[in-house]
Each structure stands twice: as C-alpha cells, then as structure tokens.
C-alpha cells in the first residue's frame, strides 16, 4: 500500500483569490493577445488537438528540435517512465525544487542528496546515474554558467549518466547561456515567462524520440494549442519587451531589501519563515515559506510591477 504522505507536494502560487501573490515566480505582465487567444481556443475546442506541425514550427523558431509537454512537470513524470522504472541512483542538490525528489521516490529511485555546487555534486556521479540540476536554481535564483557546470557535465559524460537541466527560469537571467552535451536533457517552459502558469505548456530538448514515445496524447488541450500558435506568431517579441522591465524592478528590490539573485525571485532570511509568511498573508501579501526546500528561516518572493513591489518592501520593513 502506498503512503500518500510520502509523496505530498508543496508548491508556490495562491490557492485563494484576492491576494497579492509574490510566492509564484512569474512575469507580472501578460501578452496583449490574450483575448484573441481565448477566442481561438474556443474555436479549437470542438476537435482533438494534434500539435505536430506546431512542434516543428516552434523547433525552427527556437533553433533546436523539441518535444512539447504539458509544462515541465509532465516532462519530469515522463522521465520517470523512461528511466526510473529500474532502481536508479538519482542525485539531487540539497536545496532545490522538491518535485525532483518526489517524482524519484514515486518511481522507487535511490535518492542521494548533495551540495548545491556542480563541482562537488560531480563527485557523487556513478555509472547510469541521473542528476537533477535547476539552473537558475529554485529557490535562491543562482545561475551557473556553462564553465561552472563543466565538472558536472564531464562527470555524466565519463560515467554514461544523465544530467537533467531544469531551465524553467532561464528567460529571466541576463546574458544566460545554456551548455551543450550529449548526456544533457533540458526542460523549459513558457508559462512562467509569459505569466500564464494555468496554461500548461513546456518543452524538452534532447532524447526526442524517447519522450514522444511515452507522451500522453492531447495533454495540452485547445488552450495550450492556441497559446503555441500565438507564441510562434509573436516570435518572442513579448519577452523582449517585458523582461527588461523586470530587470529594472529587480535592481530596485535588491537595493531596498539587501538581496541578490540572477533570476526574477529572491530568498531572504526572516528568522521564522512560517510565522513571517502568515503575518504577510494577513496583510494580503503572499510569499513562499522555504521550509520545504530545507530552508525554514527563509522566504522566497518574486519581482512584480513597481507599485506591487513597493507594497512588499513596505511590509518587509514593517515586520523586520
């Protein structure tokens, strides 16, 4: 009998309406074509969505062959089906996105926790291992360049292992570069950078045939299909216009709250994260308690629009 408590998940994002949500790290702006997209989704809803043509067009736009999935989360479960049905050694940094460990345990993998340092993590790699690495990392926002990742990339090549790079937030990092390598699997998503997490669309770079062979049919539905159509038509212009606005606000938050990050979110030591988060919630502001990351003294909060960030800064100054 499975123990459901063993697989319990903790995530950011408001479960209630009416809160100013800094717990989910999203683009605070949304595309100008949303109404048109929803109208198109309604038109598509009377038939099954087959997205092979869109997948090809998106691959051409990105410049690499991709596999579309219902967000990064579906891709993680597909990896479990493909590579964890045998008892596999899985290496995960100690303070990172908890879904890696949850999925690994669901598929009965042997989980090894290591430091959040690519060089030291590389020392744990054995033949056939799977290494999960979030870049930039969640929750601290630290980005690692290809040069910094090289010891880990070399280790998985030497040991015939697999490095899974979760690049969910890489769009928010200035001058970010993604490393290359035959034993690297990359996961990315649009819904964070487009501020639309309710539309479950992401993609995988690498091991294309394998992922397509186990992917669930129609997993993104008519809304995801319409979203992809508009992204392809937009050619990422929306990101080019809004990401610099986030960078500008990020600099102001770094100065005001004495924090630092390469991504669009920060962590800060507040003593007792649970109590602090509850205090802010009573003021209508939601931040992420980082206890589930193994950091019970820290909260995570994202960069939003200027007037919203000012409310958060004021709340921090009041409670701290």
Commentary on this structure:
The longest helix has 21 residues, at about 235-255. The radius of gyration is 20 Å and the shape is globular. It has helices spanning about 35-45, 50-60, 70-85, 100-105, 120, 145-160, 210-215, 220-235, 235-255, 275-280, 305-320, and strands spanning about 20, 65-70, 90-95, 110-115, 130-135, 160-165, 185-190, 200-205, 265-270, 285, 290, 300. The protein is built from 11 helices and 12 strands. It is an alpha/beta fold. Strands 2-8-7-6-5-3-4 form a 7-stranded mixed β-sheet, sandwiched between helices.
Reconstruct the topology from this structure:
Layout: E1 20-21, H1 34-44, H2 52-62, E2 66-69, H3 71-83, E3 89-93, H4 99-106, E4 110-114, H5 118-122, E5 130-134, H6 146-158, E6 162-166, E7 184-189, E8 202-205, H7 208-214, H8 221-234, H9 237-257, E9 265-269, H10 273-282, E10 285-286, E11 288-289, E12 298-302, H11 306-319
Parallel strand pairs: 1-10, 3-4, 3-5, 5-6, 6-7
Antiparallel strand pairs: 2-8, 7-8, 9-12, 11-12
Helix pairs in contact: 1-8, 2-8, 3-4, 9-11
Give a quick summary of the entry.
The protein has 320 residues and is an alpha/beta fold.
